Amino acid sequence: MSALHQTISSVPLAVVVFWVAAVLAVASAVLVVIGKNPVVCAVWLIFHFFVLAVLYLLLGSSFLAAVQVLVYAGAVMVLFLFVLMFLRVRTVVLEGGTHAFWALLAASFVLVALGAFAIKLIPRVQNGVDGCPGGVGTLMSISRELLSRNLFAFELISAILLAAVVGGVVIAKVMSKEGEE
Amino acid sequence: MITLYHFLVLSVVLFCIGGAGVLLRRDAVTLFMGIELMLNSVNLAFLAFSRLHGNAVGQIFVLMVIAVAAAEAAVGLALIILLKRKAGTVDVSGIRLLRG
Predict the structure, then answer these.
(1) Please, what sign has the CA dihedral across residues A76, A78, A79, A81?
(2) Packing angle, helices A77-87 and B28-53, rounded to 10
(3) Residue of B33, B44, B79, B95 to mutate when probing chain A, most A C-beta within 10 A
(4) Which residues partner with B59 through β-bridges?
């Protein structure tokens, strides 16, 4: 049996939760893309992040499910909504005409290519993988991994976040200078 | 019964919806939302593989992706505000600032 078809969960409740979450995730993602009002899009995106947190929980990643809700549904989306309110974007902004056709064509090509990859290629390269031991998503195992072998990446992330903060301040300063002129 | 296959296909579908969003939308803010959708679908694939292999490195990588996405959103949205000030619009198809 290939690794691809190894059971992640066969608990009946988990199966039901997966299908409900999968349908909700796809539906809310579509609503984000086709929505006419950007604020409504943002609210659907928040819903999408919550559904993804449920899927993370299903995969046993309890810590990242919490991070998903805190960072994405909390901090990042507040930033998005703040900017939307600030800019007062209300226009209908779907691309029309031939451009939409080409965009959808490109997206469906990617869908077919990646789908073929997921179906065909992965069982070939992933054969002979051991089963799915649980408990890798707990705070303890993540922090043990993060603060030992991946300490450099962890520190590097802090540098990136610092750079983002400085960048935001610099951009804001340019803005206020131009406002004075 | 749920397998890795289910999670991978869901991840691919979400990635393509996000990609279609990036291609279809013209205002910079919802274009950013499409990018966030794509990033999150990749996170889902990472976590599915991490669970399959029983390896926590996938979880670490998702943590890094979330941190970088937060930084990207902060800088990107600041740039969008600046763009609104400079060009008077956030419609990316109508911006010709770099043309000189």
Answers:
(1) positive
(2) 170
(3) B33
(4) none
